[in-house]
């Protein structure tokens, strides 16, 4: 029952979150810091009240380990948001982050000395190919879409290239964090709510470094068009309303993912998150009319097909069907 509930939280929360994030980013492309700060502050406040009982409950995992995990988590969150400032379209952003399987496998081989089957290597090759196709096509759009002199075209392309480098670094850092978290859970047990709180509470002082940017975007949000909220009957700047909904849906999404990590195997979690990304991607393209060519569709299909092969969903389906057939045969014999 917990698994079904967690899956619903992931799909409803994460898909809604992507919609309101894109609404925010389309209006103010550099608003990633204020969005991240609001998300972290909300989740930290909720955890401080309900998980730590106003700081009276001691953590099960040593604080020194949380400091390491939080440093990586904060870095990944900030860099992923900053990448949107470098001509990175939201669909490409989502597709690129689907490459987490590649990063996990590479670091698993290097750090944990893991070995994988041929189907795993095939799936990773497919995911890499799909991301490469989408990246190349987006690079061509950056070159052809920029209007101006040749120097401006080169600047736009280098700007975009820096965004790709940031996404790549965040991808590898996220994979390293996942491996570190896996080793902690093996040693101390799984404490999803506790990890959720400390991952969002401890980085809050780091936002002091970004305070001027957060303040400036807060002023811009306050100057946005006011809309009346039916429940309270008050007019609120629309960007603040979008931010509030984004924060709530982000909490629902992350809560669902953290529950899944304690209830399901990592492959199941990967499959659910990847399917969620696919639905979010399709919605983003159709609703916001993001530029997406036939080659982008090919790349996307290859990425998600590779992911499904990696999670061995085909094997699971065949085994389930075979089990049903055997059950029918047994009933016939009776």
Notes on the protein architecture:
This protein is mainly alpha-helical. 78% of the residues lie in helices and 2% in strands. The chain is built from 13 helices and two strands. It has a two-stranded antiparallel ribbon with strand order 1-2. Strand 1 and strand 2 (234-237) form a beta hairpin. Helix 2 (32-50) packs across helix 8, helix 4 packs antiparallel against helix 11 and helix 6 runs antiparallel to helix 12. The two termini are 33 Å apart. The mean pLDDT is 80. This is Solute carrier family 35 member B4. Keywords: Membrane, Sugar transport, Transmembrane, Transmembrane helix, Transport. Belongs to the nucleotide-sugar transporter family. SLC35B subfamily. One of its GO terms (molecular function) is UDP-xylose transmembrane transporter activity.
List the keywords.
two-stranded antiparallel ribbon; 334 residues; 2% strand; 13 helices; SCL35B1-4/HUT1; globular; mainly alpha; 2 strands
What's this, in brief?
With 334 residues, the protein is an all-alpha fold.
The helix content is over 70%
- Count of β-strands: 2
Largest sheet: 2 strands, antiparallel
- Unreliable residue stretches: none
Radius of gyration: 22 Å
Mean pLDDT over the full residue set = 80
Q: Estimate what percentage of residues fall within beta strands.
A: under 5%
Major β-sheet strand ordering: 1-2
What is the N-to-C succession of helices and strands? Answer: HHHHHHHHHEEHHHH
């Amino acid at each position: 029952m917990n698994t079904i509930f967690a899956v619903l939280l992931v799909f409803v929360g994460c898909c809604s979150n992507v919609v309101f994030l894109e609404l925010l980013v389309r209006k103010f492309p550099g608003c990633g810091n204020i969005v991240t700060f609001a998300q972290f502050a909300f989740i930290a406040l909720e955890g401080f009240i309900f998980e730590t009982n106003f700081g009276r409950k001691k953590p099960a995992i040593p604080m020194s380990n949380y400091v390491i995990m939080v440093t990586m988590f904060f870095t990944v969150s900030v860099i992923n948001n900053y990448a949107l400032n470098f001509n990175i379209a939201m669909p490409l952003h989502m597709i690129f982050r689907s490459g987490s399987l590649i990063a996990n496998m590479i670091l698993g081989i290097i750090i944990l000395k893991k070995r994988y089957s041929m189907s795993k290597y095939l799936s990773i090759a497919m995911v890499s190919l799909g991301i490469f196709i989408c990246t190349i096509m987006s690079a061509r759009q950056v070159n052809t879409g920029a209007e101006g002199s040749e120097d401006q075209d080169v600047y736009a392309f280098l700007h975009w290239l820096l965004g790709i480098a940031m996404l790549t670094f965040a991808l590898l850092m996220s994979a390293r964090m996942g491996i570190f978290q896996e080793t902690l859970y093996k040693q101390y047990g799984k404490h999803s709510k506790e990890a959720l709180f400390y991952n969002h509470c401890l980085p809050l002082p780091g936002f002091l470094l970004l305070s001027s940017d957060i303040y400036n975007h807060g002023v811009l949000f306050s100057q946005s068009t006011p809309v009346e909220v039916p429940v309270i009957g008050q007019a609120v700047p629309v960007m603040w309303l979008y931010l509030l909904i984004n924060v709530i849906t982000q909490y629902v999404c992350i809560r669902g993912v953290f529950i899944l990590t304690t209830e399901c195997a990592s492959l199941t979690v990967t499959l659910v998150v990847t399917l969620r990304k696919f639905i979010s991607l399709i919605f983003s393209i159709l609703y916001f009319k993001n530029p997406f060519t036939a080659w982008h569709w090919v790349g996307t299909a290859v990425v998600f097909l590779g992911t499904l092969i990696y999670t061995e969903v085909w094997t699971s389906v065949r085994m389930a069907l075979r089990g049903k057939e055997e059950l029918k045969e047994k009933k016939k014999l009776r």
